[in-house]
Each structure stands twice: as structure tokens, then as C-alpha cells.
Amino acid sequence: MTEKLAETPFDDDALHEECGVFGIFGHPDAGALTVLGLHALQHRGQESVGIVSYDGMQFIAERHAGLVGDAFGKTGQHAQKLKGTQALGHVRYSTTGGSFARNIQPMYADLAGGAIFQSTSDTEAIIHLVARSGYRQVVDRLIDALKQVEGAYSLVALTAKKLIGVRDPWGVRPLVLGELDGAPIFASETCALDIIGANYVRDVEAGELVVCTKDGIESFRPFAPQPKRFCIFEYVYFARPDSMVEGVNVYEARKRIGEELAMEAPVAADMVIPVPDSGVPAALGYAAASGLPFELGIIRNHYVGRTFIEPSDPIRHLGVRLKHNPNREKLRGKRVVLVDDSIVRGTTSKKIVEMVRDAGAKEVHFRIASPPTTHSCFYGVDTPNKDELLAHRMSIEEMREYICADSLAFISIDGLYRATGEAKRNAKLPQFCDACFSGDYPIDLTDAGRSDKQLSLLAEVA
Ligand code: SF4
Q: Residue 33 gets which letter from DSSP?
């Protein structure tokens, strides 16, 4: 299958996480638990879903376009096929390789030599390096392959006898180890453990490779150590607020961002309203620190989902109304502090400010829970080219004018670090990856000039 999957035409001004992974080893309900785990990780990728299980004799793969519920929820027939006690699943939003059905993960291979690429995804490149490795044992082959690539990844691999989880040496993306009835689990976030009643054991550490077999769990550190650079944007937007990420509750971090923002950029106003849903915790924090009332001035329609129609240009601008509608009674005649997580191209921000003003707000003061996004991400997040980012093209005052707000302020980078529990950003060796705000990329962009937006993971090999 090589058809292009449908796009989401009304939602093109947001950042998209690349993927979520979930794997479990040694549980009689492995397939069904993986379906549930992926449900909880749906926010990390809505384009496609895939699960592979192993029944002791053979691998069974189910890969589908669309949401987990669409693929595995309605009749359950696909989930029932996933027999066996070990399973691995993936939800995807394409960043490398494009939206082709053949790129849906997990990817499966018999480890023979030779290299015929069936997809355009960077993950397949790793499978080929594993296949071509001269080592005999699969763990050695995987280590050999990963030593040849460079980039940000949290990988989970399933073989007939092992479930393996590994994080890149900088630990850019999250990966946690959990346990249910003695069966080990890897998941992108703790919310995937909660949904199945599993226990959180610990985070897989940066540069760590963890191997689960029927005899237990073994940890390896096969890579040259690097300074930890976890993605700070996970706290702002990507991770689910009920997840614990690197020991920090995401909801609390977002509220603290709002508190910092209120201290850094106060304004005389009548109320604080979030752009739902991602602006809600920061708006709560802003309201608490400023003493202003928190109100739901914009209501989000949760049932829009992915819109598979291709809109004509005359109605494309209605997209924002599909998702958000102003609560006119609350807004009329009021001075409003509007809180959102980020500004990307600025097109949605402009429409939302306009919508709130049209609903009767007297003043609109826009507060952003992240520093200006001035650079593209090359580590697993789908961002526009730098030139399309509003903050790259304009000063804050020009941005304010563009989105027609009465005032505009972003949290400072130190304020964001404080919200995650750090005293301030260490300018010499930042504690996080914050490259989309600072341009300080922790992993060399050796092939960033290529047509793909993401690094190919093949920097040293291709
Ligand atoms: Fe996260 Fe930004 Fe770094 Fe990408 S560039 S990993 S979004 S902080």
C-alpha cells in the first residue's frame, strides 16, 4: 500500500509530536493491553496505529490509518487477532518519511542481510542496520546499529524472546518502564500505565538499553555518555498533563509556567481565559498568581476530531470555529488575558484573538506559556521551516500587531526552566533541549539541509 493518508486541513498551525510507543512482555492479555495503552498515548500521534504481537509461533501485525479507537475499538476484531503474551504498539504522526500507509509502525523484519527499503521512515533504516550487522545476538546487533545513527529516539523492539527499550544518549524523548502482574512494560508516558492499572517502575535513562526476557530485566549502557537534554517542550505541550515526565508532574509544571508568566508579564484585566485544552493549566496558574478570575471564555468542540474532507479555500477559515467557539456572555465588555501554549505560524493565534474580540471583549492581552518559537525542531516534532515561524520573522511588537492583540508576552526561557524545578538555564550546558527557542541544538544537524524536515538518523552511514 503506498497511498497517501488523509491530512488534517483545519489543524495546520500546531506542533505535532512524532509518536507514542507501548510494549508489554509476558502477559496473557498483551494485545488488548497494548490497544488500551495506545489509547492513552493517542495525543502523541493520530495519523496511524500499529500493533505486533507474538503468539509463540509467529508474529501477528495489525497496522491501520487513523485513530486507535477507529482501528481497534468498534468491533474489536483486529484486536482479537493479536494473540500471544507479548506485544508492541505505536501511534504515529509523520515527521520523517511522510504520510504513507507503508510507514505505519511497528516495522517488522526477518533479520536477513540485504536492504530493500519498504518505507520512507527513518525507523526502517535502523532495522536495516540491525539486519546488516555482523553480530549474532539481536541485542548486540541493535547496539551495533544504534551506534551508527545519530538523533533523538525512544525505541521499543520486540523479538520472539525479548522486549527491548532504548533511549538516545541525550534522552530527548521520554520512555518509562512499568509493570503489570509481573510483566514489564515500556511506554512513552506514565498515562499509558495508568489506563491499564500498571505500576510505574522508573524512567528508562538517557543512553540506556533495557532488555526484558522471561528471566528478568537487564540494563546496558552501550553508548558514549552525553549530557542529558530532555525536550522542554514536553512540559509545555506534548506530554499529557496527567503524566509524570522525568519525575515531574506535567500538570503542575504547566500551572507553574502560568504563575511565572503572571509574575513576569502582569496586566490589568478582568479575567483569565485559556485557549483550550492545552492552555488550561497555564491559565489556571496565571489566574492563581495574578488574583484574576479564571473563566472558560472559549469552548472547545471535542468531537471535531480529524476532518477528512478537503475544504475549499472559501471555507478554510472556518476551521478555527469548528474547534473553538467564544462564550460571548462571559467576554462582552471585558478585558481579557488569553493564555495559549505557543505561537507557531501565528495564523491560529490571529484568528482566536479576532474571535474573542468579535465576541465583545474590550481588550485582549495574549500570554504565551513558552518562549518565542524561533527555530525548527529536528528531533521528532513536526515544525514548519524556520522561515514560516512567526517569531523567527518578527519582533514581539510586530507579532502583537500581526495578531491584533492589545499586548503580547511570552514566558522567559529562565521562567520556563524555573517552572520545571531548575533555578535557571545553565547557559554553558542547558539542562534541557530548548533548541526551538534558543537555536542551541544538542545533537549536530548533520543533514538538516536535506529535503526531509527531520534528521534521517543516518548521519554517519548513508
Ligand atoms: Fe523539544 Fe524544541 Fe528540542 Fe524539538 S527543538 S526536542 S521541540 S525543545
A: H
Q: Distance from the CA of 433 to the center of ligand 1, in angstroms?
A: 6
Residue 212 among the catalytic residues: no
pLDDT tens by residue, 236-294 = 999 999 999 999 999 999 999 999 999 999 999 999 999 999 899 999 999 999 999 99
Residues 456, 447 contacting (CB under 8 angstroms): yes
Q: 436 in ligand 1 pocket by Cβ < 6 Å? A: yes
Q: Give the C-alpha separation, 101 to 227, whole Å.
A: 36
State how far the Cα of 438 lies from the Cα of 453, in Å rounded to an integer.
18
Q: Is 164 touching ligand 1 by the criterion CB < 6 Å?
A: no
Nearest to 384 by CA among 433, 419, 347, 344: 344
Q: How far does residue 112's CA lie from ligand 1's centre (Å)?
A: 35
Chain segment 307-347, per-residue pLDDT in tens:
444 555 566 666 667 788 999 999 999 999 999 999 999 99
- Evaluate: CB of 353 within 6 angstroms of ligand 1: no
Report the alpha-carbon distance of residue 144 to residue 130 in Å, rounded: 7
Q: Crossing angle for the helix pair 280-290 and 250-264, nearest 10 degrees?
A: 50
233 lines ligand 1 (CB under 6 A): yes
**Is the minimum distance from the CB of 416 to ligand 1 under 6 angstroms?**
no
Q: Going from the N-terminus, what domains does the chain have, and what CATH number goes with each?
A: 9-229 (3.60.20.10), 249-423 (3.40.50.2020)
CA 73 from centroid of its chain's CA atoms: 23
Residue nearest to atom 8 of ligand 1 (CA): 434
What is d(CA 126, CA 314) in angstroms, rounded to the nearest whole number?
44
- DSSP label at residue 70: I
* Beta partners for residue 433, in sequence order: 231
- Protein residue with least CA distance to atom 6, ligand 1: 231
Q: Considering Cα of 389, then 395, then 398, then 400, what sign does the dihedral take?
A: positive
